[in-house]
Hints:
Elements: H1 2-12, H2 17-45, H3 48-66, H4 82-117, H5 124-127, H6 130-149, H7 153-177, H8 182-212, H9 219-228, H10 231-257, H11 260-297, H12 302-336, H13 341-360, H14 366-369, H15 373-398, H16 401-433
Helix pairs in contact: 2-7, 2-11, 3-6, 3-8, 3-10, 3-11, 4-6, 4-9, 6-8, 7-8, 10-11, 10-15, 11-12, 11-13, 12-13, 13-16, 15-16
Amino acid sequence: xxxxxxxxxxxxxxxxxxxxxxTLMTGTALAQxxxxxxxxxxxxxxxxADFGVLxxxxxxxxxxxxxxxxxxxxxxxxxxxxxxxxxxLALSIIIATGMSLLILVVIALFGHSxxxxxxxPEITFWxxxxxxxxxxxGFFQAFNYWSTRKKQFRRLAxxxxxxSTITIGTQIGAGTLLKAYAGSLISGKIIGNIVATAILxxxxxxxxxxxxxxxxxxxxxxREHALKYKKFPQYSAPQVLLYMASQQLPGILxxxxxxxxxxxxxxxxxxxxxxxxxxxxxxFAQVFYPKASEYYNTNADIKILxxxxxxVLLKISILPSIxxxxxxxTLFEFVFGDNWxxxxxxxxLILPWLTVGFIVSPITFIFPILNRQDIALxxxxxxxxxxxxxxxxxxxLLKSAIWTIGLYGGVGFFARLYQIFLINxxxxxxxxxx
Length: 434
């Protein structure tokens, strides 16, 4: 027992890998408990078509948000000196502001045409809020990686709970007190993101203003670091853009081929597993990225860390996956109401893909650590094309929502398995060459 207590103390001591993961997971768990408790209320206040419009808005934001900072925020972790990282933080904020202004011009010129093309003219007004939301997301990403660099994991955990609370409160309040329509769901998302970002930014300013106001931060230094880490916009940004585009393809194409109701059911199915699990995966990723970078810089055996992370993620996901595979339709009907059983059927079809994706996603930071963003980009190009073809084939030839979703999920499952193989091969090559 004394040995067991010693091991637990060592693994859970402040600043350890396990302690940092558990800190983020605690905040994530609280945020997701609130979200899960709210969903049965939201599904009775709002219609599937309202969730369909929300899913379309999130799909648009998901694609644009990837290039909000051109992926320079990922580089904030890497420099040895905080002053260098602060220049990258400033660069990320500048790019996010510029991208938001650019999108504002696009919305002003083509907003109505875009909404009409997507078959959802009611989203036209809400497209005007995309630039503001994009700026908030870009700032949040920059603040998020700065906090990760400074190992402020407790702060990030609190932020997740704050964001979830504000989002859910706004959505339920607006839907109950005012007219329940898709705009209320969208408003909750935007307000939650902006408030949480503002709070996180203020805390960073209070703690780090001496560094942020340092003379070492200048236009010349920002330009110097932009060139030094140019592989992030050259390779990482297109790679992550393609990844998010392939993730958001259903939100855009399902509404074209099958309508808002099918998209609403798919969105709930996707969110019920992917959102809580991806946030847990993101908690692992935020700790794994700097830790793996440290392993790489000190020539430690990074494969040990990768294997340990794989095993933990598999243990977390396997039981929920089996349970949902067996009972998802009945569970959805019981929890969300009779209208939502089909969402449980959809979840069964995409569950293998989502489970493997949860296991491998944090490990994909191996690509920038090994400076092999080119391989990650090549993978995402092929992955995007195959998934796009799967939806087009389903929509144009099969003309069946359930077959299309099954095909899309199957392609995603095998693509994720290949990604695991690709990462392992890169690690083997590194060990052989070192």
